[in-house]
From TrEMBL, chains A, B:
Keywords: Amino-acid biosynthesis, ATP-binding, Diaminopimelate biosynthesis, Kinase, Lysine biosynthesis, Nucleotide-binding, Transferase
UniProt KW Hydrolase keyword: no
Taxonomic source organism: Nocardioides nanhaiensis
Family: Belongs to the aspartokinase family.
The name this protein goes by in its record: Aspartokinase
EC class of the enzyme, as a word: transferase
Sequence ranges assigned to domain ACT in this UniProt record: 284-369
Alphabetized CDD domains for the sequence: AAK_AKii-LysC-BS, ACT_AK-LysC-DapG-like_2, ACT_AKii-LysC-BS-like_1
Domain of life according to the entry: Bacteria
Pathway where this protein functions: Amino-acid biosynthesis; L-lysine biosynthesis via DAP pathway; (S)-tetrahydrodipicolinate from L-aspartate: step 1/4; Amino-acid biosynthesis; L-methionine biosynthesis via de novo pathway; L-homoserine from L-aspartate: step 1/3; Amino-acid biosynthesis; L-threonine biosynthesis; L-threonine from L-aspartate: step 1/5
C-alpha cells in the first residue's frame, strides 16, 4: 500500500464549501418545476459543493390550506394553523428529495424541527433564536444533499411547531447558512435579481450587480418584495453574502453583501441604488389630540400593545389657540381595522376629537448609500416629483433613504420621475436584457 | 373556607374515563365531514370523558400524494415517502382541532412523533414498539381534547419519521388506548359494524353485536376489511375493547372483546360468527420439486427473505415413480411478481420443473369459536358449497376457521351458500335494518 501524496493526492483535496440555496413556492409549483429545481441542485453538488436547500410549499398550496382552515373555523387557533401550514413544506421537501434521488444523488429532507431551527413561541410569526444544525451537519458529512423545510421551526420552551411568517423561507436559508458557515446563500426566485425599480412600472429599470446590506434593508422595508427584511437583517448580522437570482435562467443575479461603512466611494458607485414603492400601507390621523406631555405616548403604547408596527409618524405643530395637535402615521393596511378599534377605545381617556382613515395612499422611497456624501439629493428628488405633478402628503428620511407618501394613483409617475431624474434608466439595449426579463 | 364534602362534594367526583376514538379518511373527507366529526367528539367530551382521537388523512389525499411522488420519481426512497405521506394526517388533525375549537372546546393536535408513538425503522410498514404518552397525558390533564395523527410514528434508533402501513390509524388508536389505559377504543368507519358476511354479496347479512378477539382476528385475516389484523392483535394483547361503529349514524356497532377461552358456551351463542372472503390473493404452484429433505425449506426461506408473507400452503404427496412433488401456496397478489422472480432464480439450484401463477382465485372462510365444540361444521360447509356447484382448489383449517380457495367467479355463490346453510341470514325485517345500511 502506498500512501497518497500528502500534497496532491486524493486525500488532501480541500474540503468543499457549503452552498445554501433557497427555492420559493413558484419554483416548486408542480412536478415538472420540482424536477427542474432538482437538476439545478445536482449541478451545484457536481461542482463540488456540499448543498443545503431551504424550500417553500408548492405554489398556492399554503393558500389552499388556509382556505380549508377557514372552511372549518373562522378564527382558527394559531397553534393549529401552524401545525396545518407546516405540512406544505413537508410535501415539497419530500418531493424534492425524491426528484434528486431519481437523478442518482442522495438527498435527505428535514422538517424545521429536525433541522434544529429553534424559535420563540409566537405562532404565525415566530423569530429564529438559534439553529442547532447537528443532524443536518451529519447528513452533509455523510455526503447527502440536505433539504430543509423553510418557514418553520420549533419553539424553545414549549417544543411546539411554529411558522416564521411571510418570507420565512428566505430567513430559514440565511439562518442555515450562518449556522453552517456557508460560503454563500443563493435565493432563487422568479425575478432576475434586485432592480433599480419595479420593471412593471419602469420598463427601463436595471438589475443591480451588487447592493449593500444597508441599502437592501431600506429597499425591503420600503416595498421591494424580492427579499424580506428579516432575512437581510440576519444576513448582515452574520455577514452572509446573499445571491438573489432567477430559478428560471442561468443569469447572474444581484449579490447583497458588505457594509457601506467599509466601502471606499468610487467614481463608478451610483449615488442611488434604486427607487422602491409600497402600496400596502394606510394612513391614520388622530385629530385634535391635547398637546400635553404623555398623550402621544399613550396612543403609541396602545398600538404597540396591539402588536401593530407603525411606519412613518408625523405630528403637526399645535394650533396656539386650541393647544390641540394632529398625529398622523402609516401602518400596514392589514392592521388598519385593529388600529382603529384600539384607538376608538382610547378616545374618552385621551380626549382627541376624531379619527381619519385613508388607504388610498402609496409610499415612494429613494435609496442609496451615496446620498450621505452627495448634498442636493433631496432637492433633486422633490423637484422631479413636482415636475411630475405629484403632491407630497408625508415625508420621512434616514441616512440613506428619503420616503414620501403620495396619492395611490400617483405612485407610478412618482417612481418613473425619480428613476429618470437620477439617471437610473437603462439604455435601450440594456432595457431589453434586464427590464424584459424582470418578471 | 369550607372544605368540600369528601364524599359528595365537587372535588370528589370520580375521574372520568378516557375514550379513544378513531376516524378514517372517509369520515374526514372534506370540511363538512370534519365539522360533523368534531360535533361527535364534543358529545363524548360533554358526556364526561377525556377524549383522545386518532385521525387518518382526508379522503383520497394519501393517494394524491402518492401520485405526486410518482410524478417526480418512479421509485421514491421509502424515507422520503414516509415524510411525504405523514403530511396528510398533519392536515386533517389540525383542521379537526380547529373545528373543535370553533365549537368552544379546546383541542390540541399532535404528530405521531409528538404523541410518543415509537416504532421500528421499517419505512412504509413500521411496527409500534412503544407509546410514551407523556405529552398527550399532560394535554388531557389540562382538559384539552387530544387529536393524534394516525398511521405514523418516529423510529426508536434513528429518530426518523415512519408510517405504519395499511390500517395504521386503527393500530395507532388501539396503541394509544393501551398506553392511556382507556376504557374503550371506538373505531368509527363507514359501515355499521362487523357483519356475518359482506352485505354487498349477502343482502341478508346481519350485524354482530359482539365478537371475540380470536374470531375477529380470523375474520380480518380472511378478508373482512372492517378492522386490520394488527389492530386486533394489539387490542387482544392489552385487552382493550374495540367498538366498531359508523361515523354516519348513532347506531350501536360491534364490540370486539373477550377471549373464547374464558367464555361459557351459551344456548344463544352462534356456532358461526361469519363468512369472510378475500379476492386479493394469488396462487403459485412450484411443479416437480425433488421430494428431498430441505428442498421445500429452501423455497420458503427465499420467499421469507424477500419479505413475502404466504397464506395457505399445500404440498401434494409425491408421485412414487418420479419422487417429485408439487408445492402450492397463496400470497398477496401485490407480491406475485416479486415471488415469481425470486423463485425463478432458484430453479437450477432446487431443480424444480416449472412455476404456475394464478390470480383468478378467491378465498372463502367460515369463522366461529363454536365450531370447536360442534362436530360436523366442516361437512356441512363442504356440502353447502357442493350444492352451489363450487369446486374447491385448496383447503386449510384452524381451530375456529375453515378456509377454501375457489375460482374467483364462484366466490359470491360460495359465500351466500355458506351464510344460508349456517342460518346466518336475517329475517326480512332485520335485513332492512342491518343489510341495507351495511355500506
Amino acid at each position: 500500500m502506498v500512501s497518497p501524496d500528502p500534497v496532491s493526492g486524493p486525500m488532501s483535496r480541500p474540503l468543499s464549501g457549503i452552498v445554501v440555496q433557497k427555492y420559493g413556492g413558484s419554483s416548486v409549483a408542480d412536478a415538472a418545476a420540482i424536477k427542474r429545481v432538482a437538476r439545478r441542485i445536482v449541478e451545484a453538488k457536481k461542482a463540488g459543493n456540499a448543498v443545503v436547500v431551504a424550500v417553500s410549499a408548492m405554489g398556492d398550496s399554503t393558500d389552499e390550506l388556509l382556505d380549508l382552515a377557514n372552511q372549518v373555523s373562522p378564527l382558527p387557533p394559531a397553534r393549529e394553523l401552524d401545525m396545518l401550514l407546516t405540512s406544505g413544506e413537508r410535501i415539497s421537501m419530500a418531493l424534492l428529495a425524491m426528484a434528486i434521488s431519481d437523478l442518482g444523488f442522495s438527498a435527505r429532507s428535514f422538517t424545521g424541527s429536525q433541522a434544529g431551527v429553534i424559535t420563540d413561541s409566537v405562532h404565525g410569526k415566530a423569530k429564529i433564536i438559534d439553529v442547532t444544525p447537528g443532524r443536518i451537519q451529519s447528513a452533509i458529512d455523510e455526503g447527502h444533499i440536505v433539504i430543509v423545510a423553510g418557514f418553520q421551526g420549533v419553539s424553545q420552551d414549549t417544543k411546539e411547531i411554529t411558522t416564521l411568517g411571510r418570507g420565512g423561507t428566505d430567513t430559514t436559508a440565511v439562518a442555515l447558512a450562518a449556522a453552517l458557515q456557508a460560503d454563500v446563500c443563493e435565493i432563487y426566485t422568479d425575478v432576475d435579481g434586485v432592480f433599480t425599480a419595479d420593471p412593471r412600472i419602469v420598463p427601463a429599470a436595471q438589475k443591480l450587480a451588487t447592493v449593500t446590506y444597508e441599502e437592501m434593508l431600506e429597499l425591503a422595508a420600503c416595498g421591494a418584495k424580492v427579499l424580506h427584511l428579516r432575512c437581510v437583517e440576519y444576513a448582515r448580522r452574520y455577514d452572509i453574502p446573499i445571491h438573489v437570482r432567477s430559478s428560471f435562467s442561468q443569469l447572474e443575479g444581484t449579490v447583497v453583501s458588505g457594509s457601506i461603512d467599509h466601502q471606499e466611494p468610487t467614481m463608478e458607485q451610483a449615488i442611488i441604488a434604486g427607487v422602491a414603492h409600497d402600496r400596502s400601507e394606510a394612513k391614520i390621523t388622530v385629530v385634535g389630540v391635547p398637546d400635553k406631555v404623555g398623550e402621544a405616548a399613550r396612543i403609541f403604547e396602545a398600538l404597540a400593545g396591539a402588536q401593530i408596527n407603525l411606519d412613518m409618524i408625523v405630528q403637526n405643530v399645535s394650533a396656539a389657540a386650541t393647544n390641540l395637535t394632529d398625529i398622523s402615521f402609516t401602518l400596514p393596511r392589514s392592521d388598519g381595522q385593529t388600529a382603529m378599534t384600539t384607538l376608538a377605545s382610547l378616545q374618552s381617556e385621551v380626549g382627541f376629537d376624531s379619527l381619519l382613515y385613508d388607504d388610498k395612499i402609496g409610499k415612494v422611497s429613494l435609496i442609496g448609500a451615496g446620498m450621505r456624501s452627495h448634498p442636493g439629493v433631496t432637492a433633486k428628488f422633490f423637484s422631479a416629483l413636482a415636475g411630475a405633478g405629484v403632491s407630497l402628503r408625508m415625508i420621512s428620511t434616514s441616512e440613506i433613504r428619503i420616503s414620501v407618501v403620495v396619492d395611490e394613483d400617483e405612485v407610478d409617475s412618482a417612481v418613473a420621475a425619480a428613476h429618470t431624474a437620477f439617471d437610473l434608466d437603462a439604455s435601450e439595449v440594456e432595457a431589453v436584457v434586464y427590464g424584459g426579463s424582470g418578471r
